[in-house]
Amino acid sequence: MSTERDGNRPERTTYAILPAGRIALRARVEDLLSTPINEYPCFPQALGEAHNLPAESVVELLEHRLTILQEQLNELEIGVAKALARGVEPRFLIDADYQQVLLTAEIRWVGQLCGDIGSGALPW
Q1: How far is the C-alpha of 25 from the C-alpha of 32, rounded, in Å?
Q2: With CB atoms 3.0 to 4.6 Å apart as the test, which of 57, 59, 98, 103 could cross-link to 73 if both were Cys?
């Protein structure tokens, strides 16, 4: 651990990871990369119970979700563009790329679901 100051800025403490911490970090990252887990069970559960609500309510709620998802995707895209403009290497942004893919897929899927409910293609 060390403390340093840059000009008039407040002191900043810098920490170093210890060998035991490096081992623990590596083990956790390896586990998270290799083993899929159901990380977000709430939305699928809500979808499974959506039939208990009127179709119009479900579409309205899902359209609200779409607005939020699109905002999140836009913010993520802006953040990635700024990072790339600052010279951040793409390998340090693969998590953001993954999140963009997931958001894009969810936006497409939820949009299709709204369309199917609204058109009657999915009987309610």
Answers
A1: 11
A2: 103
Q: What is the DSSP string of 61-95?
A: HHHHHHHHHHHHHHHHHHHHHHHHHTT--GGGGHH
Q: Which amino acid is at 63?
A: E
The string of pLDDT tens digits covering residues 14-37 is 899 999 999 998 999 899 888 888
Phi and psi at residue 6, to the nearest 5°: -120, 100
Contact assessment for residue 73 and residue 104, using Cβ atoms and an 8 Å cutoff: yes
For CA atoms 51, 54, 58, 61, the dihedral sign is negative
pLDDT tens-place string over residues 59-107 = 999 999 999 999 999 999 999 999 999 999 999 999 999 999 999 999 9
Distance from the Cα of residue 49 to its chain's centroid: 24
Contacts of 54 (CB under 8 A, 6+ apart): 124
Would you say 9 and 19 are in contact if contact means Cβ atoms under 8 Å apart?
no
